Recover the amino acids of this structure.
């Protein structure tokens, strides 16, 4: 329960100390998945409003696919690449959960 309360104030030092022991690995995944859902929904909704007068509307699932590729590559690919570059340069101060 204390961890849930601290999530509402992530800028405090107590939050970092509490989370450092047992980091939440699913948080980044669900945040990125929510962004993908919102991108796909709003993209198709805007296409629907653009084709308002036309009788036929075709849902484009390709928008969701492009969102998955873009958002997951930015959200997981860039931090992973940064982690491996830092490991190659012998920088041992970061662990993979710290970067993600």
């Amino acid at each position: 329960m204390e961890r849930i309360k601290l999530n509402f104030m992530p800028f405090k030092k107590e939050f970092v100390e509490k989370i450092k022991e047992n980091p939440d690995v699913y948080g980044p995944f669900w945040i990125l998945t929510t962004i993908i859902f919102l991108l796909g929904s709003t993209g198709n909704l805007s296409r629907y409003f653009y084709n308002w007068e036309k009788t036929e509307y075709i849902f484009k699932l390709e928008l969701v696919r492009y969102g998955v590729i873009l958002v997951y590559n930015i959200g997981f690919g860039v931090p992973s690449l940064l982690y491996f570059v830092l490991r190659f340069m012998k920088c041992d101060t970061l662990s993979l959960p710290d970067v993600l």
In short: The CA atoms of residues 10 and 89 lie 30 Å apart. The mean pLDDT is 82. The longest helix spans residues 62-88.
